[in-house]
Amino acid sequence: MTVLTGCTRSSGNRVVSMSPTVPTSASVVSATATPSPSASASPLLPGNCAELAPLQRVEEALGVNLLGDVTYLRAAPVPQSGRTGRVTCGYGTPVTTPSGGTPTPSGRPLVELSYITYVDAKTAADRVTLTVHTDSQHATTTQVQVDGKPAWVLVGSDWDELVMADGARTIVAEVSPRILAPEKAPAVLTRLAAQMLAFGASMSPGASGAASSG
Q: Segment Disordered: which positions (predicted)?
């Protein structure tokens, strides 16, 4: 695993890029970076967490300041499931500093935002349906709208989660209940998902994936 350390923000949070399966080069991460959508045949994925959801926007949605690292993970495609790409950004990631060593991310972040692309809209919608069906067995499910598109919020004892499909991409936002009260989960997760949808264009213009909680 290659760990690349980028710039820090005024709050003291470090930005760490982790790419265990897709090589990447170190780059300065700016909280004001903007995406550059292209018409390339390859899936458009955020190059860093500032493109997907800047830390400041995440903290504004939550109403709290997060301590710990911001981590960026880019995973390889999974042909068996139809996944063509995935980026997961972690916010408030715990850090471990060995004696005389380099601080490294350790443990699950308080917030995880995943942007995932698939071969087509049907595959993306099917993945959302499966996730909602599986996770709803241990959570309370509510249907919401994100920019006019259907999404599902699942509030459980371990994690609060929003999942949705938009064309050939899916959005997954997860927040620890340690920092998010159950009654606030739908509104907060909806704001986070809207921020994520702003990156790029729908993988299948005009076709929004729909899922069922049944």
A: 1-22, 85-107
Per-residue pLDDT 10s for the chain (214 aa) are 333 333 333 344 555 655 443 333 222 233 333 333 333 345 699 999 999 999 999 999 999 999 999 999 999 999 999 999 999 999 999 988 888 788 788 889 999 999 999 999 999 999 999 999 999 999 999 999 999 999 999 999 999 999 999 999 999 999 999 999 999 999 999 999 999 999 975 444 444 433 333 3
- Element spanning 52, H or E: helix 49-52
Element (H, E) at 142: strand 139-146
User: Domains, the chain, ranges and CATH?
Assistant: 3-29+44-197 (3.40.1000)
pTM over 0.85: no
